[in-house]
Amino acid sequence: MTKSFFQAFMLLFLVTDPFGNVPLFVSALANVPLARRWRVVVRECAIAFALLLLFMFFGRHFLSALQLSEVSLRIGGGVILFLIALRMVFPQPGGVLGDVEHDHEPFIVPLAIPALAGPSALATVLLFSSNETAEVLLHVGALSLVAVVWLIVLLSAERMQRALGARVMTAFERLMGLILTAMAVEMLLAGIRAYLKTL
After folding, report:
1. Helix ranges, the chain (H)
2. 62 exposed, middle or buried (CB, 10 Å; 0-12, 13-18, 19+)?
3. Which end of the chain is flanked by fewer CB atoms within 10 Å, N or C?
4. In angstroms, rounded to a whole number, what is the distance separating the alpha carbons of residues 21 and 103?
5. Is the confidence at residue 37, as pLDDT, over 80?
6. What is d(CA 189, CA 184) in angstroms, rounded to the nearest whole number?
7. For residues 122 and 22, what is the distance between their CA atoms, to the nearest angstrom?
C-alpha cells in the first residue's frame, strides 16, 4: 500500500511538474498586483485539483463514452509523457508548454490548464480510475498531497527562482525530465504488453 501510494504520488508530482512550472508562474503573474498573487496561485491550484479529481472519479465513464480502451489510453498517455519529458530534458524557447501570453491576470489558462492539469496529468488520473474503494482513497490522497506541494512550491516561486537561479532550476527540471522519460517508457511498454495479450 505504501509503495503504491509513493508511486502514485511520484507520478503525479512528475507529470504536473511544479518546479518546472516556477518560471511560467513567475512570468504569468508579473503584471498581477503583489497582494493578489497568492490568491491567483491558490485559485489556479484549486481548479487544477478539481479537474484532476473529476477525471479520476469519472474516468471510466469518459472512456466508455468515447469507446476508448485503457490500453489505448495507457499507450497514448505514455507517448504524451515521453514528449513532455523530452521538452524537459532538452528545454525549448517556449518552455515545456510552448509560448503563452501574459498580458493580463491568468484565469484557468495557462496555469491551471495546461501547466498543472495538462494532457499527461489528465491521462495519468484517468488510469487511476478504479472501482476499489481502497485504491480510490489511495489515489485521492496522493493527488491531495501533490496539490499541497503545488501550493508550497508555487507560492514561493519568485523567492525560489531568485535564490536558486535559472541554471539550478533548469538542471532540476532536466533531472525530473529524465525520471519522467523512464516512467513514460514503462507506461508505453505496459500498454504494449496489455495490447499483445488481446491478440
Report:
1. 2-16, 22-28, 34-65, 70-89, 119-127, 133-155, 157-198
2. middle
3. C
4. 18
5. yes
6. 9
7. 20
Cβ proximity of 16 and 123 under 8 Å: no
Dist CA 132 CA 136 (whole Å): 6
pLDDT above 80: residue 170: no
Nearest Cα neighbor of 54 from 125, 136, 116, 142 is 125
Q: Please give the backbone phi and psi of residue 55, each rounded to the nearest 5 degrees, phi first.
A: -65, -35
CB atoms within 10 A of CB 145: 14
pLDDT at 27: 74
The predicted pLDDT at position 154 comes to 95
**Phi, psi angles (nearest 5°) of residue 109:** -100, 130
pLDDT at residue 148 in the model: 98
Angstrom distance (rounded) from CA 159 to CA 177: 23
* pTM metric for this prediction: 0.74
What does the alpha-carbon distance between residue 50 and residue 69 come to, in Å, rounded to a whole number? 24
Distance CA 141, CA 128 (A): 12
CA atoms within 13 A on the CB side of 123: 25
